[in-house]
Amino acid sequence: MTDRLPLTFATPASSNSWEQSLDTALAAEEAGFWGIGLGERFDGSLTGWTLATALAARTQRLHFFHTTLNVPYRYPYILAQEAAALDVISGGRVILCLGTGFEPSRQNYLNAGLPFGSPGERLQDMRDAIAILRGVWGGQRFSHKGRFYSVEDVAPSIRPVNGIVPIWVGAGGPRMLSLAGQLAEGYMKNLGWGPVEDVRGLNDAVSDAARSAGRDPLSIRRVMNGAAFVAHTTAELDHYIANAPRPVGGPQGGLIGSPDQILETLRQYRAAGVDTFNISFPPDGRAEQIARFGRQIIDASHAL
Questions:
Q1: CB 183 within 8 A of CB 159
Q2: How many angstroms separate the CA atoms of 217 and 206, rounded?
Q3: Rounded to whole angstroms, how far apart are CA atoms 21 and 61?
Q4: Which residue from 227, 222, 234, 224 is spatially nearest to 260, judged by alpha carbons?
Q5: Could you tell me if residue 238 is inside a domain?
Q6: Which pairing describes strands 221-230 and 35-38: parallel, antiparallel, or unpaired?
Q7: Distance of alpha carbon 53 from alpha carbon 50, whole angstroms
Q8: Cβ distance 176 to 123 under 8 Å?
Protein backbone atom coordinates (compact mmCIF):
# COMPACT_ATOMS: atom_id res chain seq x y z
CA MET A 1 0.00 0.00 0.00
CA THR A 2 1.26 3.49 -0.82
CA ASP A 3 1.79 6.24 1.70
CA ARG A 4 -0.79 9.00 1.88
CA LEU A 5 -0.28 11.53 -0.91
CA PRO A 6 1.34 14.81 0.19
CA LEU A 7 -0.70 17.99 0.43
CA THR A 8 -0.60 20.03 -2.77
CA PHE A 9 -2.09 23.37 -3.78
CA ALA A 10 -3.27 24.87 -7.05
CA THR A 11 -4.98 28.09 -8.06
CA PRO A 12 -7.17 28.88 -11.08
CA ALA A 13 -5.98 30.98 -13.99
CA SER A 14 -8.24 33.66 -15.41
CA SER A 15 -10.40 32.63 -18.34
CA ASN A 16 -10.87 36.25 -19.41
CA SER A 17 -7.35 37.67 -19.67
CA TRP A 18 -4.11 36.16 -20.92
CA GLU A 19 -2.09 38.74 -18.97
CA GLN A 20 -3.89 37.89 -15.70
CA SER A 21 -3.51 34.17 -16.36
CA LEU A 22 0.22 34.49 -16.94
CA ASP A 23 0.70 36.73 -13.89
CA THR A 24 -1.20 34.21 -11.73
CA ALA A 25 0.82 31.26 -13.03
CA LEU A 26 4.17 32.97 -12.52
CA ALA A 27 3.21 34.12 -9.01
CA ALA A 28 1.96 30.63 -8.13
CA GLU A 29 5.14 28.95 -9.34
CA GLU A 30 7.27 31.39 -7.37
CA ALA A 31 5.17 30.76 -4.23
CA GLY A 32 5.53 26.98 -4.39
CA PHE A 33 2.12 25.99 -5.75
CA TRP A 34 1.89 22.61 -7.45
CA GLY A 35 -0.64 23.39 -10.16
CA ILE A 36 -2.95 25.67 -12.11
CA GLY A 37 -6.63 24.91 -12.56
CA LEU A 38 -8.27 25.96 -15.80
CA GLY A 39 -11.89 26.56 -16.66
CA GLU A 40 -13.48 25.16 -19.78
CA ARG A 41 -16.39 27.28 -20.96
CA PHE A 42 -17.35 28.03 -24.55
CA ASP A 43 -18.81 31.47 -23.89
CA GLY A 44 -16.21 33.81 -25.36
CA SER A 45 -13.66 33.01 -22.63
CA LEU A 46 -10.12 31.85 -23.31
CA THR A 47 -10.38 28.08 -23.63
CA GLY A 48 -8.65 26.12 -20.92
CA TRP A 49 -6.89 23.69 -23.25
CA THR A 50 -5.24 26.52 -25.17
CA LEU A 51 -4.35 28.30 -21.93
CA ALA A 52 -2.72 25.12 -20.61
CA THR A 53 -0.52 24.95 -23.70
CA ALA A 54 0.53 28.60 -23.48
CA LEU A 55 1.17 28.57 -19.72
CA ALA A 56 3.15 25.32 -19.89
CA ALA A 57 5.55 27.06 -22.26
CA ARG A 58 6.12 29.89 -19.76
CA THR A 59 6.57 27.85 -16.58
CA GLN A 60 8.87 25.09 -15.34
CA ARG A 61 7.16 23.19 -12.49
CA LEU A 62 3.41 23.84 -12.48
CA HIS A 63 0.99 21.06 -13.41
CA PHE A 64 -2.13 21.84 -15.44
CA PHE A 65 -5.65 20.43 -15.13
CA HIS A 66 -9.19 21.50 -16.00
CA THR A 67 -12.38 21.73 -14.00
CA THR A 68 -13.41 19.86 -16.12
CA LEU A 69 -12.76 18.77 -19.73
CA ASN A 70 -16.17 17.42 -20.61
CA VAL A 71 -16.10 14.27 -22.69
CA PRO A 72 -19.04 15.17 -24.98
CA TYR A 73 -16.98 18.06 -26.37
CA ARG A 74 -14.05 15.90 -27.48
CA TYR A 75 -13.41 12.71 -29.40
CA PRO A 76 -11.14 10.66 -27.11
CA TYR A 77 -8.72 9.43 -29.80
CA ILE A 78 -7.88 13.02 -30.74
CA LEU A 79 -7.74 14.07 -27.08
CA ALA A 80 -5.28 11.25 -26.38
CA GLN A 81 -2.93 12.53 -29.08
CA GLU A 82 -3.21 16.15 -27.92
CA ALA A 83 -2.71 15.30 -24.26
CA ALA A 84 0.33 13.12 -24.94
CA ALA A 85 1.91 15.84 -27.07
CA LEU A 86 1.43 18.53 -24.42
CA ASP A 87 2.64 16.15 -21.73
CA VAL A 88 5.89 15.58 -23.63
CA ILE A 89 6.34 19.28 -24.42
CA SER A 90 5.75 20.25 -20.77
CA GLY A 91 7.90 17.50 -19.29
CA GLY A 92 5.05 15.48 -17.79
CA ARG A 93 2.93 18.27 -16.27
CA VAL A 94 -0.51 17.50 -17.74
CA ILE A 95 -3.51 15.99 -15.94
CA LEU A 96 -6.79 15.24 -17.69
CA CYS A 97 -9.69 16.03 -15.35
CA LEU A 98 -12.72 14.67 -17.20
CA GLY A 99 -16.43 15.21 -16.71
CA THR A 100 -19.56 13.86 -18.33
CA GLY A 101 -21.13 17.27 -18.87
CA PHE A 102 -23.46 19.29 -16.67
CA GLU A 103 -27.19 18.71 -17.22
CA PRO A 104 -28.13 22.45 -17.08
CA SER A 105 -25.67 22.99 -19.96
CA ARG A 106 -27.42 20.47 -22.22
CA GLN A 107 -28.59 23.13 -24.65
CA ASN A 108 -25.02 24.36 -25.19
CA TYR A 109 -24.09 20.93 -26.56
CA LEU A 110 -27.17 20.69 -28.73
CA ASN A 111 -26.60 24.20 -30.10
CA ALA A 112 -23.08 23.14 -31.11
CA GLY A 113 -24.37 20.03 -32.89
CA LEU A 114 -22.99 17.66 -30.25
CA PRO A 115 -24.86 14.68 -28.79
CA PHE A 116 -25.76 14.83 -25.10
CA GLY A 117 -27.05 11.51 -23.85
CA SER A 118 -28.81 10.46 -20.69
CA PRO A 119 -26.79 10.30 -17.45
CA GLY A 120 -26.33 6.55 -17.91
CA GLU A 121 -25.22 6.96 -21.53
CA ARG A 122 -22.75 9.69 -20.62
CA LEU A 123 -21.37 7.53 -17.82
CA GLN A 124 -20.75 4.71 -20.30
CA ASP A 125 -19.19 7.19 -22.72
CA MET A 126 -16.81 8.26 -19.94
CA ARG A 127 -15.76 4.64 -19.42
CA ASP A 128 -15.22 4.21 -23.14
CA ALA A 129 -13.25 7.47 -23.35
CA ILE A 130 -10.91 6.39 -20.54
CA ALA A 131 -10.40 3.00 -22.21
CA ILE A 132 -9.54 4.67 -25.52
CA LEU A 133 -7.21 7.24 -23.94
CA ARG A 134 -5.23 4.58 -22.12
CA GLY A 135 -5.24 2.23 -25.10
CA VAL A 136 -3.86 4.91 -27.39
CA TRP A 137 -1.11 5.68 -24.84
CA GLY A 138 -0.21 1.99 -24.61
CA GLY A 139 2.28 1.98 -27.46
CA GLN A 140 0.47 -0.57 -29.70
CA ARG A 141 -2.20 -0.34 -32.36
CA PHE A 142 -5.51 -0.42 -30.53
CA SER A 143 -9.22 -1.14 -30.95
CA HIS A 144 -12.20 -0.52 -28.68
CA LYS A 145 -15.91 -0.87 -29.34
CA GLY A 146 -17.99 1.50 -27.26
CA ARG A 147 -21.54 2.80 -27.04
CA PHE A 148 -20.71 5.98 -28.96
CA TYR A 149 -16.90 6.18 -29.01
CA SER A 150 -15.13 3.40 -30.90
CA VAL A 151 -11.74 3.01 -32.54
CA GLU A 152 -10.44 0.25 -34.78
CA ASP A 153 -6.74 -0.54 -35.22
CA VAL A 154 -5.71 3.06 -34.55
CA ALA A 155 -2.07 4.12 -34.33
CA PRO A 156 -0.69 4.86 -30.86
CA SER A 157 0.22 8.36 -29.77
CA ILE A 158 3.69 9.37 -28.78
CA ARG A 159 4.24 8.06 -25.26
CA PRO A 160 3.42 10.39 -22.37
CA VAL A 161 6.39 11.08 -20.09
CA ASN A 162 5.28 8.58 -17.44
CA GLY A 163 3.52 6.18 -19.79
CA ILE A 164 0.09 7.69 -19.18
CA VAL A 165 -1.38 11.11 -18.53
CA PRO A 166 -3.09 10.92 -15.10
CA ILE A 167 -6.89 11.01 -15.37
CA TRP A 168 -9.04 12.64 -12.71
CA VAL A 169 -12.81 12.43 -12.69
CA GLY A 170 -15.00 15.37 -11.72
CA ALA A 171 -17.75 13.68 -9.73
CA GLY A 172 -20.55 14.13 -7.24
CA GLY A 173 -23.11 11.38 -7.82
CA PRO A 174 -22.75 7.79 -6.61
CA ARG A 175 -22.06 6.26 -10.04
CA MET A 176 -19.34 8.76 -10.88
CA LEU A 177 -17.75 8.35 -7.46
CA SER A 178 -17.67 4.61 -8.08
CA LEU A 179 -16.11 5.13 -11.52
CA ALA A 180 -13.44 7.37 -10.01
CA GLY A 181 -12.51 4.70 -7.48
CA GLN A 182 -12.46 1.96 -10.11
CA LEU A 183 -10.57 3.71 -12.90
CA ALA A 184 -9.11 7.14 -12.15
CA GLU A 185 -5.88 8.50 -10.70
CA GLY A 186 -7.81 11.30 -9.03
CA TYR A 187 -11.25 12.52 -7.99
CA MET A 188 -12.36 16.16 -7.97
CA LYS A 189 -15.38 17.11 -5.88
CA ASN A 190 -17.94 18.82 -8.09
CA LEU A 191 -19.91 21.91 -7.06
CA GLY A 192 -17.32 23.61 -4.92
CA TRP A 193 -16.62 23.37 -1.20
CA GLY A 194 -18.58 21.34 1.32
CA PRO A 195 -18.79 20.51 5.03
CA VAL A 196 -16.06 18.23 6.34
CA GLU A 197 -18.33 15.27 7.04
CA ASP A 198 -19.95 15.48 3.60
CA VAL A 199 -16.52 15.46 1.98
CA ARG A 200 -15.46 12.52 4.14
CA GLY A 201 -18.48 10.57 2.91
CA LEU A 202 -17.64 11.27 -0.75
CA ASN A 203 -14.03 10.23 -0.25
CA ASP A 204 -15.14 7.07 1.57
CA ALA A 205 -17.32 6.17 -1.43
CA VAL A 206 -14.33 6.55 -3.76
CA SER A 207 -12.16 4.47 -1.42
CA ASP A 208 -14.79 1.70 -1.16
CA ALA A 209 -15.01 1.48 -4.97
CA ALA A 210 -11.22 1.36 -5.23
CA ARG A 211 -10.95 -1.50 -2.75
CA SER A 212 -13.69 -3.42 -4.57
CA ALA A 213 -11.70 -3.03 -7.79
CA GLY A 214 -8.52 -4.26 -6.11
CA ARG A 215 -6.91 -0.82 -6.10
CA ASP A 216 -5.11 1.06 -3.34
CA PRO A 217 -7.38 3.95 -2.32
CA LEU A 218 -4.41 5.97 -1.06
CA SER A 219 -3.07 6.16 -4.61
CA ILE A 220 -6.09 8.23 -5.76
CA ARG A 221 -5.71 12.00 -5.47
CA ARG A 222 -8.68 13.84 -3.83
CA VAL A 223 -9.21 17.41 -5.02
CA MET A 224 -11.44 20.25 -3.77
CA ASN A 225 -12.18 23.66 -5.26
CA GLY A 226 -12.74 26.60 -2.93
CA ALA A 227 -11.93 30.18 -1.99
CA ALA A 228 -8.84 31.36 -0.12
CA PHE A 229 -7.77 34.46 1.77
CA VAL A 230 -4.93 34.79 4.27
CA ALA A 231 -5.78 37.56 6.75
CA HIS A 232 -3.18 39.24 8.95
CA THR A 233 -5.76 41.21 10.94
CA THR A 234 -9.42 40.92 11.92
CA ALA A 235 -10.13 44.06 9.90
CA GLU A 236 -8.62 42.45 6.78
CA LEU A 237 -10.76 39.36 7.23
CA ASP A 238 -13.94 41.37 7.87
CA HIS A 239 -13.32 43.40 4.71
CA TYR A 240 -12.81 40.25 2.65
CA ILE A 241 -15.99 38.60 3.95
CA ALA A 242 -18.04 41.75 3.41
CA ASN A 243 -16.91 42.01 -0.22
CA ALA A 244 -16.88 38.32 -1.18
CA PRO A 245 -19.12 37.45 -4.15
CA ARG A 246 -20.90 34.79 -2.07
CA PRO A 247 -21.32 34.20 1.66
CA VAL A 248 -18.18 32.72 3.24
CA GLY A 249 -16.84 31.99 6.66
CA GLY A 250 -15.56 29.09 8.69
CA PRO A 251 -14.19 25.87 7.22
CA GLN A 252 -17.19 25.50 4.90
CA GLY A 253 -16.19 28.62 2.96
CA GLY A 254 -12.68 27.61 2.01
CA LEU A 255 -9.18 28.29 3.28
CA ILE A 256 -10.09 31.65 4.78
CA GLY A 257 -8.84 33.37 7.93
CA SER A 258 -5.62 33.80 9.83
CA PRO A 259 -2.74 31.43 9.08
CA ASP A 260 -3.54 29.42 12.20
CA GLN A 261 -7.22 29.18 11.23
CA ILE A 262 -6.37 28.06 7.70
CA LEU A 263 -3.96 25.42 8.95
CA GLU A 264 -6.66 24.09 11.27
CA THR A 265 -9.12 23.92 8.35
CA LEU A 266 -6.49 22.05 6.36
CA ARG A 267 -6.08 19.56 9.22
CA GLN A 268 -9.82 18.87 9.22
CA TYR A 269 -10.08 18.27 5.47
CA ARG A 270 -6.81 16.37 5.41
CA ALA A 271 -8.29 14.01 8.01
CA ALA A 272 -11.35 13.66 5.73
CA GLY A 273 -9.11 12.47 2.89
CA VAL A 274 -8.43 15.60 0.84
CA ASP A 275 -4.87 16.09 -0.42
CA THR A 276 -5.18 18.76 -3.14
CA PHE A 277 -6.80 22.21 -2.89
CA ASN A 278 -7.54 24.32 -5.97
CA ILE A 279 -8.14 27.71 -4.36
CA SER A 280 -9.31 31.03 -5.79
CA PHE A 281 -7.99 34.32 -4.43
CA PRO A 282 -9.78 37.68 -4.80
CA PRO A 283 -8.79 39.64 -7.92
CA ASP A 284 -7.57 42.68 -5.97
CA GLY A 285 -4.19 41.85 -4.50
CA ARG A 286 -4.15 38.31 -5.97
CA ALA A 287 -0.37 38.19 -6.43
CA GLU A 288 0.25 39.30 -2.84
CA GLN A 289 -2.26 36.75 -1.53
CA ILE A 290 -0.60 33.97 -3.53
CA ALA A 291 2.80 34.95 -2.14
CA ARG A 292 1.41 35.19 1.40
CA PHE A 293 -0.23 31.77 1.09
CA GLY A 294 3.05 30.28 -0.09
CA ARG A 295 5.06 31.76 2.77
CA GLN A 296 2.62 31.15 5.60
CA ILE A 297 0.55 28.12 4.55
CA ILE A 298 2.34 25.95 2.00
CA ASP A 299 5.60 25.93 3.94
CA ALA A 300 3.81 25.10 7.21
CA SER A 301 1.54 22.47 5.62
CA HIS A 302 4.36 19.97 5.08
CA ALA A 303 3.92 18.81 8.67
CA LEU A 304 0.22 18.01 8.24
A1: no
A2: 8
A3: 16
A4: 234
A5: no
A6: unpaired
A7: 5
A8: yes
Provide the pLDDT confidence category of residue 267 given band limits of 50, 70 and 90: very high
- pLDDT digit string, tens, across residues 244-254: 766 554 455 79
User: pLDDT tens digits, residue range 139-156?
Assistant: 999 999 999 999 999 999
In a domain, 79, yes or no: yes
Question: Which CATH number does the domain housing residue 61 bear?
Answer: 3.20.20.30
Which among 84, 108, 109 is positioned nearest to 96, based on CA atoms?
84
**What does the alpha-carbon distance between residue 35 and residue 10 come to, in Å, rounded to a whole number?**
4
Handedness of CA 241, 253, 250, 3 (dihedral sign): negative
| Domain of residue 114, residue span | 8-227
Q: What SS3 class is residue 35?
A: strand
Lowest mean pLDDT among 109-118, 143-152, 163-172, 266-275: 109-118
Residue 70 Ramachandran class (φ > 0 left, ψ -120 to 50 alpha, else beta): beta
User: Which pTM was predicted?
Assistant: 0.94
Peptide bond into 11 cis (omega under 30): no
